[in-house]
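User:
Note these tokens:
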Amino acid sequence: MHERAREAVIGALVADAAAMGLHWIYDIDRVRAVGGAAPEFIEPDLGNYRGGAGYFAHKGKRAGDSSHYGAQLMVCLKSLAATDGVLDPADYERRFVETFGPGGAWVGYIDYATRETLRNVDDAERAAAASADTFDLGAFADERSLMRSNVMANLRKWRGEQLATAVGKGIRIRHPDNDELVALAQSMAAAVEAARGGFHGTDDVQLPAVSKLAAVVACGADVDAAVRVTNDNEVSLAGGRAVSNLIRTAIDGGDWRAIARDLAASGERGRACPLAQSIPMIGHVLAGAQSFEDGVRADILEGGDNSGRGTVVGAVLGAAYGVPSEWAQKTGAVEIAAPLLDRLN
């Protein structure tokens, strides 16, 4: 992985964490009064949100922790590190559910896109299970329990030919010479996979669509597929492509500022989560940034969904300027990300 690509991922994580303490305060005077000249890594405090100033989403978090946006980026990075930098939507979705779903590692705020994606995945799992329960096994009906458990377990990890191979191996553990049963189990697997469907991202047009893209672009992986895992609609896909072009240009050493100016002029900028507002705001912040610190501070002081925007602002500025070591050292996620990035080199 190119050093600029590595710095893009680190920059995204750092900018998210730097903004988290003042995340979702929409009273700009309040943001500036609390943040002052150095608004980064403020300790989250409910008092800063009183009087309708914003929404306090990060109770229990400490300065330097990631918001849910940084956590979403980390899930994608872990998946990419496990698949040699090639985006595997099934692996990414599985890790996403294991992190944000019931019993998952994430403790903190769950946004709409994540909540609805988890619901869609659960619905898909139920449809898959129903397909396994009703698949016609003919003379092998007494093997349904074995075949069902085999198919459902392997479906959590594999798709297509890999799923068929894994299911076949599982059946042969107990029936090593029964080719007919193996073929039937593989047919069941294909039917169950079809019932489960492909992407389960929700019809949402907010910043979770792009929060993971620093890692995806750094690896040269499939942007559209990454977006669709959590935000499966055309608006999010278009936003993902625009953001990815911006990050990729910064990694390649191109004129990212010209792209930022175009994005700033592409719509009415706003401080809320929808891409139609946040992408022009990202462009506006980046167009005026003179350093990593300057741009991230400007993003924080704009208030609103500054952590979400930070995953893009930090990626671009990290690639362009590098990430200050003292900021990286304050960000807990960087220590976890470093060996994953080493694996992708």
